[in-house]
Specification:
single chain, about 350 residues, alpha+beta, Creatine Kinase, Chain A, domain 2, 7-stranded antiparallel beta sheet, 11 strands
Length: about 350
């Protein structure tokens, strides 16, 4: 069974006002004093962000337990210095992001200017183990049309600088300002994949391979395929659903590769349109079906995804739980819908943030 790991980026906020707080260094210093959390939490691009990474897990129940524990520990460490954490993919309230003062982040600010300063967006990255780079690239080639569905399921960023954007995942629109971000062409082999990355780095527009921000990539650090398409999810249960579906997609793609089945040859232009549609409407309207690239109700496309990975999820014992979780998400809404319903009910973005703090910790 393939192992799965999750990285979540959390927003540091004032527990009373909901305003972002640039206190990541202080929170990390607190976490470093705790032996159990020394290697769990990491600094991110902006000082209003805190990242944690789970261990690789085979069991989704174990993965869920670790995500819940890390969120609670993040809140505990933040609380000790007067702030807390919210699983929000953008700040609903206006914010002036503070870029971290290490050499890498300063290079990025010098290179990309305002695009770096405005990148206060928070994602959920999922790593799934693969046996080789060749298998990993074959998986990346075959995942491409399904990634917008994950975008729609995880969408959790409707507000930006105090206003409703009209998007369910505005984070994804900001993320695409990076020159290496987004969907990719079919590579066909690990050799072609690595040659392209080397050529991209050689342009000087990127600092190194770590700045390859493809929607799905072979991790430069671990023997995994890494998907970076999801918003950080408001509820831990949604993060586990995304991880479950990603493992199912990776296993399904690997089987197709071993059986000699070619990847769908959709152009990057069509994939970008599918991704835009998912970011715009989330689960409230229509999505582009990964097979036909034509509009269908979101519910139908989500169920098509479940059907696509059914055999893989059945093999890991996750099928029924994934079905139930998808139906609940379609019924109750993703993070974007929850945020908008809170805004409609309270009329206050501060109340949206403070209520989402409670959702973050379950």
């Amino acid at each position: 069974m393939r192992t799965v790991g999750v990285e979540e980026e959390l927003l540091l906020v004032d527990p009373e006002t909901g305003e972002p707080r640039a206190l990541s260094a202080a929170v990390l210093a607190r976490a470093a004093q705790d032996d159990a959390d020394q290697d769990v939490f990491e600094k991110e691009l902006h000082d209003q962000m805190l990242e944690f990474a789970t261990h690789p897990q085979s069991s989704m129940e174990a993965l869920h337990a670790e995500i819940v524990r890390c969120r609670k520990e993040a809140a505990r460490h933040a609380g000790e210095i007067g702030c807390t954490v919210a699983a929000l993919a953008t700040s609903p309230l206006p914010v002036s992001p503070a870029v971290g003062l290490n050499r890498r982040y300063q290079w990025m600010e010098d290179q990309y200017g305002i695009a770096t300063r405005e990148q206060l967006v928070l994602g959920c990255h999922v790593h799934v183990a693969v046996e080789s780079d060749e298998e990993g690239v074959a998986v990346v080639d075959r995942l491409r049309p399904w990634l917008p569905v994950l975008r729609a399921l995880s969408a959790n960023s409707p507000f930006w600088q105090g206003k409703d954007t009209g998007y369910s995942s505005y984070r994804s629109r900001v993320w695409l300002r990076w020159p290496s971000a987004g969907p990719t062409e079919i590579f066909g082999s690990a050799e072609r994949y690595h040659r392209l990355i080397a050529d991209m780095v050689a342009t000087g527009a990127l600092l190194d391979e770590g700045m390859i921000y493809f929607d799905a990539r072979v991790s430069p650090r671990y023997p995994t395929v890494e998907l970076r398409v999801a918003d950080v999810c408001l509820h831990s249960s949604t993060a586990v659903l995304i991880a479950t579906l990603v493992r199912g997609l990776v296993e399904t793609a690997a089987r197709e590769w071993r059986e000699g089945r070619e990847p769908a040859d959709h152009s990057v232009s069509l994939l970008r349109l599918a991704d835009w549609q998912a970011a715009r409407s989330g689960l409230t309207g229509e999505l582009l079906h990964p097979a036909t690239m034509r509009r269908m109700p979101a519910e139908s496309v989500v169920r098509a995804l479940l059907e696509h990975v059914e055999e893989a999820l059945d093999g890991t014992g996750d099928l029924e739980q994934a079905r139930v979780a998808c139906e609940e998400l379609l019924r109750d809404g993703n993070g974007a819908r929850v945020q908008r319903e809170l805004m409609e009910r309270t009329g206050s973005l501060r109340d949206v943030v403070t209520e989402c703090v409670r959702h973050t910790q379950g």
